[in-house]
Amino acid sequence: MAELANCPWCHGLFMKGPAAICRDCVKQEEDDFQTVYSFVRQKKNRTATVPDIVRETGVEEYKIREFVKAKRLHPTQFPGLAYSCEKCGTDIKDGRMCESCTGELKEGVQKQEKMKQAAQKGKKEDLGQVTYYSVKGNNR
Ligand SMILES: [Zn+2]
Ligand SMILES: [Zn+2]
Q1: Same structural domain for residues 74 and 113?
Q2: How remote is the CA of residue 77 from the centroid of ligand 2, in Å?
Q3: Domain total for the chain?
Q4: Which ligand is closest to the CA of 29, given by its number?
């Protein structure tokens, strides 16, 4: 049975198939990709940034970022390109998140691990050493 879904790009109804967007948008995306690709392929545009491409081709920024993210346009090949960090939206060229968000995430995970370990131990040895000095600390 065919399933109707809303296209996330144009919000029109379409028959859900192998693509996550409707046929019109697939075609539109393909056109846009060709436009962007033939622009950035020119030698003088090799180092164009995403805003440059938006200005020159009229293709929407989020689409260009999607192409980069999907590795259809490679930042190694076109060093001006980037896509958005999933967390803070800053420009990145690799992975899913920028360095600081990746770091934060790692720290968070480590903190959680520590808390888990401490909880498992069920003892206060870790905290004991750290909190000794905090009582007098605020007097000037
Ligand atoms: Zn659509
Ligand atoms: Zn980030």
Answers
A1: no
A2: 23
A3: 2
A4: 1
pTM of the entire structure? 0.70
Residue 18's pLDDT band, with cuts at 50, 70 and 90, is confident
In whole angstroms, how far apart are CA 11 and each of 5, 22, 25?
Answer: 9, 9, 10
pLDDT tens, position by position, 36-85: 999 999 999 999 999 999 999 999 999 999 999 999 999 999 999 999 99
Q: Which of 95, 72, 92 is nearest to 82 (CA)?
A: 92
Q: Which ligand is nearest to the CA of 12?
A: 1
CA of 65 to the centre of ligand 2 (A): 15
Alpha carbons within 13 angstroms on the beta-carbon side of residue 10 total 12
108 Cβ neighbours under 8 A, 6+ residues apart: none
Q: Write the CB contacts of 36 (distance below 8 Å, at least 6 apart in sequence).
A: 53, 57, 59, 63, 64, 67, 73
Residue 91 binned pLDDT confidence (cut-offs 50, 70, 90): very high
Give the pairing type, strands 83-84 and 91-92: antiparallel
47 and 13 in one domain?
yes
